[in-house]
Amino acid sequence: MLCKTNQRNTTGIDDLKGDQSWRIFRIISEFTEGFDRLSNVCDAISIFGSARLPPEHPYYIKTVELAELLGKNDFSIISGGGPGIMEAANKGAHQQKQLSIGLNIELPMEQSPNPYQDLALDFRYFFVRKVMFIRYSIGYVCMPGGFGTLDEFFEALTLMQTNKIYPIPLILYGSQFWGGLIDWIKSTLIEYETISEADLDLITITDDPQEVLDIMLRHREWKNQQRHQDLNQNALIL
Q: Using a CB cutoff of 8 Å and minimum separation of 24, what contacts does 6-10 make?
């Protein structure tokens, strides 16, 4: 049976099964623009978290503090570009005059761009946006958040577990918020042997901004060593 793809979509929800040809070009254009505009980004940390937490919330305040600390140490900051924790991340970087990047996504609610972005990109497709986070980040910090934050966290965790990307620091900030998830992973996933105990080594949970910074500094040093080795190898090839 053939699907009819020429019917009008009145729901406002993107139907990936319809109008395939023009959709492919839009996807390509989003990848092209993202790679082009982010090509010079180096040593950036992605900070994820809820769009729903207001500026007076303790985790919003802590996110600004963390982004400022990272900015003081020459890390750029990438966020989802929206309000809440995303805004706090961009604000902290902006206040330190570090590059503040927002990867905005078109959503029916919640996602209004925050004013602290030096470089802002707009995406229609989540999967294109997620590639940009992975491609241009050398570390992830997940503040308290909802399904979107969990999606980014488990995406990176899966890619590292399956050796599809080089390991990056994957930090859950806020032990009170994330502790239940880690307990469930230990008591259920490991007990049922659906993951290995060693997989937990890919995750760090903390309440200390300085620990986050120390982890990122060590990783940047390792990353710079890798870059140096790559340059030497390329020179030998030439």
A: none
**DSSP state letters, 144-190:** S--HHHHHHHHHHHHHHHTTSS----EEEE-HHHHHHHHHHIIIIIT
How many other CB atoms are found less than 10 A from the CB of residue 224?
Answer: 11
Mean pLDDT value across the chain? 91
Digit-coded pLDDT (tens) for 210-233: 999 999 999 999 999 987 777 766
Instruction: Give the range of the structural domain holding residue 96, as residue numbers without chain letter.
Output: 30-237
Q: Which amino acid is at 80?
A: G
CATH number at residue 221: 3.40.50.450
Residue 5 inside a domain? The answer is no
- 181's CB contacts (< 8 A; 6+ apart) are 172
201: DSSP letter: G
Going 19 to 147 to 85 to 162, the CA torsion angle's sign is: negative
- For helices 58-72 and 85-95, the axis angle rounded to 10 degrees is 30
**Pick from 142, 86, 138: nearest CA to 116:** 86
Per-residue pLDDT tens digits for 103-158: 999 876 656 789 999 999 999 999 999 999 999 999 999 999 999 999 999 999 99
Number of domains in the chain: 1
In this prediction the pTM is: 0.89
Q: Which amino acid is at 134?
A: I
